[in-house]
């Protein structure tokens, strides 16, 4: 099995980031993101230094509320802490209160209500994402409860699939034949599930693994050979396979693509879905199939707070970005600017502050119509026009 480049906290973060969608429908992520974005106004990331003590007291006051007996009080405290960690990178607070946050979140996962468990999983994901330092013991302490939570509810299973696909993009060595076959078989089963969000998550995961499988499928049709292909920074499938093993994997890829085509057109769909759900399903799987069949490499360009631009190319990099943006919602820009773990994930380092801006007088002297530069450009254009006119006159004679 390929080893992730960033195990430890990145692994733990991927395990619990998406669990916030436990108790929502297909549109739960957007509604949660809107709620977070609306609540973020209470905790602006660019706060004044004079407000640090007040904000710190509020953070500790929310932590104290996690020990209250009333469930609704704990839920409000979990939600407020999640907002504070989402809209600002509070690494010092997370390090100082790490044991308290982890212990109370684990207690909520074990004994809390469904809502409290969902909010605790959000806070755990944000806490681990903010820490950004390797800690195997932390992941091992979180793993049993996260696996138990993600074993039953379809929304939790969808979250687990998205977390797995996020980790899949960080593999730097090839999958063995049995692992590749097991992944394809598992995804094929998930595409037949009743829950639409779970099927969508499986389709997105297949989109991560499909470029290698589709490439082998096309090569096999052309010359009967199976060549491993690196998936845009992700894992790659083994280069040499026995004929029977390759034939079985070839059939698996065909079955997956066929099922995705059915979902893209709602053919063979026996479940009763609303018109809105059917439209969303068609749109999602048509987009995935178009990306698989097209030769264009997906790319994205994001402008950061201080004028930097982050440019990403490849299926794996774009998938990582979409995964983190979906979870962080309104706080994505703040974490992209200040979170060291995201800098490591995307391999970039933004500027710490915005470049100095020119004053009005400096702009007038350097960019105005009467500036030296503008006069030089005007003289150059005049000389070019005169030279061109002279050549035309000479050619005429």
Walkthrough of the structure:
The protein is mostly helical and about 400 residues long. Helix content is about 65%, strand content about 5%. It contains 18 helices and 2 strands. It has a two-stranded antiparallel sheet with strand order 1-2. The radius of gyration is 26 Å and the shape is extended.
Unreliable stretches: 1-47, 217-241
Overall residue-averaged pLDDT value: 75
- Biggest pleated sheet: 2 strands, antiparallel
Beta-strand content bin: under 5%
Calculate the terminal CA-CA distance, rounded to whole Å.
79 Å
Say how many strands there are: 2
- Sum up the overall morphology in one term: extended
State the share of residues found in helices, binned by percent. 55-70%
Class based on secondary structure composition and strand pairing = mainly alpha
Number of distinct helices: 18
Instruction: Give helix and strand order, one letter per element, not per position.
Output: HHHHHHHHHHHHHEEHHHHH
Radius of gyration: 26 Å
Strand order of the largest sheet: 1-2
Outline the secondary-structure elements.
Blueprint: H1 8-16, H2 28-39, H3 52-65, H4 71-87, H5 91-96, H6 98-111, H7 114-131, H8 136-149, H9 154-168, H10 177-190, H11 196-223, H12 243-265, H13 275-293, E1 299-303, E2 309-313, H14 315-328, H15 332-338, H16 340-346, H17 360-367, H18 372-396
Antiparallel strand pairs: 1-2
Helix pairs in contact: 1-7, 1-8, 1-9, 3-4, 4-7, 6-7, 6-8, 9-11, 9-14, 10-11, 10-12, 11-12, 11-13, 12-13
